[in-house]
Amino acid sequence: xxxxxxxxxxxxxxxxxxxxxxxxxxxxxxxxxxxxxxxxxxxxxxxxxxxxxxxxxxxxxxxxxxxxxxxxxxxxxxxxxxxxxxxxxxxxxxxxxxxxxxxxxxx
Length: 107
What we know:
The chain contains 4 helices and no strands. It has about 110 residues and is mainly alpha-helical. Helix 1 (about 5-20) packs antiparallel against helix 2 (about 25-40), helix 1 packs parallel to helix 3 (about 45-60) and helix 3 (about 45-60) runs antiparallel to helix 4. The chain starts with a helix and ends with a helix.
């Protein structure tokens, strides 16, 4: 459903990827900024992250290499933090369950 915000964001995100692969800096920037705007309006973190990576590429290719790379780095660091937080949410309960079962087996 293209009227759905996530579908629209996903389309913008991947159209930015296609324009990037074609070396079309202006179109990549246009689609990236549209994707970021839509993502912020609807809380679509994945779309915002991927669109921001495209924007970083466009900035770098426009001659502001360090700024583009810095923008991409912030997205990658945020993603790593998110993955680690999610892993902790899963690992901690599993670890506690395992410890409880081991104590139960020892008794």
